[in-house]
Design a protein that fits this description.
Shape of chain A: elongated
Largest interface: A-B, 44 and 42 residues
Largest sheet of chain A: 8 strands, mixed
Number of strands of chain A: 11
Structural class of chain A: alpha+beta
Oligomer: homodimer
CATH class of the largest domain in chain A: Alpha Beta
CATH topology of the largest domain in chain A: Nucleoside Triphosphate Pyrophosphohydrolase
Amino acid sequence: MNFCSDCGKPVSLAVPPDDNRLRHVCSHCGTVHYQNPKLVVGSIPLWVGEGRPQLLLCRRAIEPRRGYWTLPAGFMENEETTEEAAQRETIEEAGARIALQGLFTMLNVPHVHQVHLFYRAELLDLSFAAGTESLEVKLFSESEIPWDEIAFPTVSQTLQLFFSDLNAQREGRPFGFHCMDIRRRLPGERSD
Amino acid sequence: MNFCSDCGKPVSLAVPPDDNRLRHVCSHCGTVHYQNPKLVVGSIPLWVGEGRPQLLLCRRAIEPRRGYWTLPAGFMENEETTEEAAQRETIEEAGARIALQGLFTMLNVPHVHQVHLFYRAELLDLSFAAGTESLEVKLFSESEIPWDEIAFPTVSQTLQLFFSDLNAQREGRPFGFHCMDIRRRLPGERSD
């Protein structure tokens, strides 16, 4: 941030009164421009069908991590709820209709200023199709998951926890809700 | 937002290519300035002691809702996790040392572009004291909660759910994790 989005004059870094952090403060109008973490929200679309349970993954058509596989997810927008964001992203990236179930994971990624949320979901039919941000969209059973080609650690972690809970569920245990912090950096990921 | 924070030139509202929402776009350098919901994170500090269970509330010294009671909470900062944010806000607003327990509520407030998280917490000692953003800090048993003077609907909702689960816990049921959407507006609250 170089300029004040209110008045257009230069900003500088300063600790405002009654604060203890460096903020971008306008040298002209005095506005303090706070920067806060963003929510990334997605779904874990499960198809049971007749065979083994399968999850719907998207291969990314955009950077970062173009060509890698991910769960449908993206930045939450103003005016929507987390559930609405999960459904919207699943439609936009995978063209998939889902019925949302409970929140499954909340993963802090403090070094990139993000919190990721993933909801369990039932895939309602097989008429999915890659959206503009996906190269392809495909169902994977547990043994088919391309673990070495998963785009983000929050997605790998969510997939591992999901299959673990899915197997435990067969023994009568309910799905959990899992909170974790992810501090591992991806190749080339900024270190601020 | 009137000016580009990158180059200082005016921004205008436009739908970028491959997007479907109005964004602030710089007329000069083309930067798209996305705006996303913020996380507000806090704690529910419980003191059991010898008598009835009590919760620690803060009376707000700042707008909005100056003079009303709230749980210690505030905007999550970059570089921290949700748990770190809950502990920091509890220290800053209530001078209170806590041991965090599980996440208890996640409340969407879409019309103000916020998601609120509250963690259950054990208050570790009675040496709390109002911070600069609080007029006073005080323990309340369930029957003493000033329900008509609670600052925000997310706090009223969290308190109601907490006492409900606390009473259920005495009958052997565990605390839950509750997700809700709050669409009720406060007096004077913007309606964008």
